[in-house]
Amino acid sequence: MAADQDSPGQPVLTQRSGGSQSGFLLADNTVSADTRQGSATAIPYVSGGIGDDDPLANMTKDYNLHLIFATQGSGEYLADIKVVIEDSRGNKVLAVESPGPVFYAKLPAGNYRISADYQGKSLHKSVAVKAGRLSDLYFHWPSEDVSGKNGRI
């Protein structure tokens, strides 16, 4: 499915699907929204970009975990982050790659350990997810870990 714009310079919206993945990506990569269902545990999540016209902005009420990926100091957003979420027993409940700097997931209430990896540099945080409440976590990589590397937005 594609919705082409008649105006030059306007992004083209395309649908991507395959296996357990489906979502929409803007052809110019300025904003991406990618939704997938976890395979064994069926944890819904969505990942994408930043901006006023970002489709994720209207989805926040449907999720209870919000992650942001950026460079420490400058706040420059990062993409292509490997995200692993484990429950309190160490069971992996979700392992995906976030194509954008914003990530939402809908988890059962409980305690989780979140690992985020950008170009081989991993950061870890713990969070207590509560029913009906959004938990925000910010992952900031030191600038020396991201200088001159791809995946920045």
- Contiguous low-pLDDT stretches (5 residues minimum) are 1-40
> N-to-C SSE series?
EEEEEEEEEEEEH
Largest sheet: 8 strands, mixed
Query: What's the number of structural domains?
Result: 1
The percentage of residues in β strands lies in over 45%
Portion of residues within helices: under 10%
Compute the average pLDDT. Answer: 74
Measured between the Cα atoms of the first and last residue, the distance is 26 Å
What's the CATH topology name?
Answer: Immunoglobulin-like
What does this protein look like?
The structure is a single chain. The protein has a single domain, classed as Immunoglobulin-like, CATH 2.60.40.10. Helices cover 3% and strands 49% of the residues. It contains one helix and twelve strands, in the order ββββββββββββα. The protein has one helix at residues 143-146, and strands at residues 2-3, 13-18, 21-26, 32-37, 44-48, 65-71, 81-87, 92-98, 102-105, 110-118, 121-129, 135-141. Strands 1-2-3-4-5-9-6-12 form an eight-stranded mixed sheet. The protein has a four-stranded antiparallel sheet with strand order 8-7-10-11, with no helix packed on it. The longest helix has 4 residues, at 143-146. The two termini are 26 Å apart.
